Amino acid sequence: GAVSRTFTITGTSFDAAATVEFSGTGITVNSTTWTSATSMTVTISVALTAATGARDVRVVNPNYGTGIRTGGLTITAAPTITSLTPNNRGAGSSGQTITVAGTGFAAGATSVFSGTLVTVTASTITATSITLTVTVATAAAAGLRSLTVTNLDGGTRTLANAFTVNADRKS
User: Nearest to residue 26, comparing CAs of 53, 7, 8?
Assistant: First the structure.
């Protein structure tokens, strides 16, 4: 799923009251902004349950008809996260290597832990794994953290309670 992804549609004879629609299900149009007779921006959200593949993009001018771009948008699968190894580190640990297993990871994906004071300083990405370099600050509170991975296309997934910050550095 992707939330609030904005892109530009170019064409001709767009009316200021034009709307944008997509074939299939799982795509919600959040907003449409008319820029000119040849350009519009649209912001959409894509549900995690949306089928992957090409979708038709339809611009509907209320008084002038409809224009369709067949296959104008492609929905790709959101990443999945199955595990973190290791799944815990102690406060005060720096430069720790953590491997994220899953699917659908893409070059440029970002990985972020919930809360504060657990930071990712580097990552190496393949389609099925992300190797993170993680620092857990000495002042990081002990407890569970979620991990969110977001691909550049906006596909995102969170694994709740995926990682534990331990109170001592020994772990």
Answer: 53
Query: Cα torsion at 96, 160, 109, 103 (round to 10°)?
Result: 100
* Token pair belonging to 80: 């999945």
Please give the radius of gyration of the chain, using alpha carbons only, rounded to the nearest integer.
21
Q: Rounded CA gap, 131 and 75, in Å?
A: 26
**CA-to-CA separations, 41 to 23, 38, 68, in angstroms, rounded:** 18, 11, 16
Q: Is the peptide bond before 79 cis (omega within 30 degrees of 0)?
A: no
Distance separating the N- and C-terminal Cα atoms of the chain: 34
Low-confidence ranges of the chain (pLDDT < 50): none
pLDDT at 51: 87
Nearest-angstrom CA–CA distance, 7 and 11: 13
Question: CA-CA distance, 102 to 11, in Å (whole number)?
Answer: 39
